[in-house]
Specification:
The complex is a heterodimer. By secondary structure, chain A is mainly β. Chain A has three helices and 16 strands. In chain A, a hairpin with a 2-residue loop joins strand 1 and strand 2. The termini of chain A are far apart. Classes of the chains: A mainly beta, B mainly alpha. At the A-B interface, strand 9 and strand 10 of A face helix 9 of B.
């Protein structure tokens, strides 16, 4: 009977012990700090308003009306920087998130990770997939699968597909513009013959979000709204794209991809609730 | 003595009860799971409904039903019609241009009414998760629960006026009365009673086994075959934006189904009168004139091409994408060569692109005995 009582007490203590071990595993140096949950919302918008697909209602700085028909991209390694110097990379075993403007389920990430409570100074992430992640055939299933980037052009996956139609003031015809960002190619000659590719440019980039400090209270959930401000892809800074002078696609034009990439670095902001 | 007699009576009654109960219970069956080996780079997520797991017995039953003309609910040889009447293995389960009855690849039903569209091939449908038919009408989000799964499509085919124009009761009765079927239903589903639901399940199981993954291009990806210079050049054209740019809609090495299974207006027309396009499913304006991108696997066997079969040869299709695109406000941006009516391939590029497309031919698919009529 006495042994049974000891056994019962041990059973009661076990969950508490496991909980303590789990907290330690999360790197909590301050046992009183506690923890919370960080939830991410990927918000796509144009001039501060939620993106409306398939409607010719936006205007570039160059004066072209445009509509977005598809917007698909990868964001990875979302990193939270603690005030005390700690660093947390959000991950559910995989830090890559696929976002699709037509698939609401891709626009929210309620990470299961338990994050140490406290002050966080800033948030950063990688737009697209860096070399350690951009590995061909890693996504066999849709929708991520359909982001694959041709092997002959460098392989891996599109960082972003932004498909649009635009028109100038003086015509009723709409023209396509496919802003597809992925591995760029360096060609030895003037043409874009794949035989003359002599190198590749990864074209992913890191975004350190301005004004992205927040406080995670103990036992609470904080929602970070990670916003893509789509007009920046077209207007910059630093580059104003005049769609009337551009080809319809950029996958084989590293010069244009670099311009788009540089615009993208300024296309993001964050708020929290 | 009376007591003993009473006990015996009770035991006898109990025995009868147990015996009766045993007869009413369906006999437990344990069908053998049918395992699909996923080919290299193919999707790992299969579209198999949880209420219709694949079994060896289910597939065998489905195969027999697929090839059985009684499915139409008729027994007169002139009126019998099975799935295989139109869905011929030699044409990747389309009817083909040279069908003895359905000339030009345009099938019609027992009542003589033409199908609204040409056929789509039965290739790798176990990976289709975005709807069936050219317009994706049969999809999980359909408000009509009888039009959501491949299983439902089977019965739509049996009932449709432009196909078998059948009758559920007649078909069930005919199949039930055919020797061998009750036993097969019992092995597959635990009951000898033929039901419409189980017929649909079995045929859907068989269709899900129709996997094509042994083309020359598949072997090339595995390092087991080499493409010719012309095929390789065509492959580059297929995969590049400044080339033919086929891959955005039709996949490639990263999507070996050779279709995204999504819907596009690919610039065929500027007037839209078809009430069975994608728009009439979604009511979204951008879907006007849009149809599913079909797989390009086994293209050599699946003429005619496009939803209305307007192109009879692969050359015509290539010419269309090269210089025949028509502008409309609904054309998909992926048809980015629209301003020049196409990608303007040179004659030699057209030859190379066709050569590559033909590397997607999987002859073993159209000769695989497991996909053919049972003996």
């Amino acid at each position: 009977m006495k042994n049974n009582r000891h056994f019962g007490a041990a059973l009661l203590l076990l969950p508490a012990l496991l909980l303590m071990l789990a907290c330690e595993k999360n790197g909590n140096d301050d046992p009183d700090a506690g923890s919370g949950v960080v939830s991410i919302r990927f918000v796509n918008r144009v001039t501060s308003q939620p993106l409306v697909l398939d409607t010719l209602q936006y205007v570039t700085q160059s004066g072209q009306s445009y509509k977005i028909t598809d917007l698909q991209y990868f964001i990875s390694k979302i990193t939270l920087y603690r005030h005390d110097g700690g660093v947390v990379i959000l991950s559910d075993g995989d830090s890559i998130r696929y976002v699709d403007a037509r698939l609401p389920e891709t626009q929210a990430w309620d990470s299961a990770a338990v994050i140490e409570a406290g002050e966080y100074d800033s948030v950063a992430f990688i737009f697209g997939l860096d070399e350690s992640q951009n590995i061909s055939y890693r996504f066999p299933n849709p929708p991520e699968r359909d982001m694959f980037w041709p092997e002959v052009l460098g392989g891996g996956y599109h960082h972003m597909k932004l498909n649009s139609m635009w028109k100038s003031c003086c015509t009723n015809l709409e023209s396509p513009f496919m802003m597809h960002l992925g591995t760029g190619q360096i060609y030895s000659g003037q043409t874009h013959s794949t035989d003359s590719i002599i190198g590749f440019v990864p074209n992913w980039f890191r975004v350190s979000l301005p004004a992205s400090s927040f406080t995670l209270q103990r036992d609470s959930v904080i929602t970070l709204r990670l916003m893509m401000n789509i007009e920046y892809w077209f207007n910059g800074p630093p580059n104003i794209l005049d769609l009337s002078s551009l080809p319809q696609g950029i996958m084989q034009n590293q010069e244009l991809m670099a311009k788009v990439r540089d615009n993208g670095k300024n296309a993001f902001s964050m708020s929290h609730e | 003595m009376n007591k003993i007699k009473g006990v015996w009576m009770l035991l006898l009654a109990a025995g009868i009860m147990v015996s009766c109960a045993k007869e009413e219970e369906p006999e437990a069956v344990s069908p053998t799971p049918y395992v699909i080996d996923i080919p290299l780079y193919f999707p790992t997520q299969l579209n198999i409904p949880s209420d219709n797991p694949m079994t060896v017995e289910g597939v065998a039953l489905g195969r027999r039903l697929f090839y059985d003309g009684r499915l139409s609910g008729r027994s007169d040889p002139d009126s019998m019609m099975s799935c295989s009447t139109c869905h011929l293995q030699e044409h990747a389960f389309e009817c083909g241009l040279n069908h003895p009855k359905y000339t030009g690849g345009h099938p019609y039903g027992l009542t003589g009414i033409s199908t609204p569209h040409t056929m789509m091939p039965f290739i790798n449908l176990v990976w289709t998760n975005t709807g069936y038919l050219w317009n994706g009408l049969v999809e999980p989000s359909n408000t009509d629960p009888s039009k959501r799964q491949l299983e439902d499509l089977v019965w739509m085919g049996i009932m449709a006026p432009h196909e078998m124009a059948g009758d559920t009761n007649r078909t069930k009765a005919l199949i039930q009365a055919t020797p061998g079927y009750p036993e097969m239903f019992k092995k597959a589903f635990g009951s000898e009673v033929v039901t419409a639901k189980n017929m649909g399940r079995a045929i859907a199981q068989f269709i899900r086994t129709l996997i094509s993954a042994n083309s020359k291009f598949d072997r090339y990806l595995k390092g087991e075959a080499q493409l010719t210079p012309s095929e390789l050049n065509g492959y580059v054209l297929f995969m590049t934006e400044e080339g033919a740019d086929c891959f955005h809609c039709h996949g490639g090495e990263g999507n070996p189904l050779f279709t995204t299974n999504l819907y596009y207006n690919n610039g065929k027309d500027d007037v839209f009168t078809d009430t069975r396009d994608r728009y009439h499913v979604t009511l979204q304006e951008q879907d006007i004139g849009a149809y599913k991108a079909p797989t390009l696997r086994n293209l050599a066997f699946t003429a005619p091409y496009m939803h209305d079969g307007r192109f009879v040869t692969i050359d015509e299709v290539i010419n269309f994408y090269s210089s025949g695109l028509v502008y409309s406000p609904y054309v998909n941006p992926l048809m980015h060569h629209i301003s020049t009516n196409g990608n303007q391939l040179t004659p030699s590029e057209k030859v190379d692109l066709k050569a590559f497309l033909l590397t997607l031919t999987d002859s073993s698919f159209i000769t695989n005995p497991a996909f053919g009529a049972p003996e």
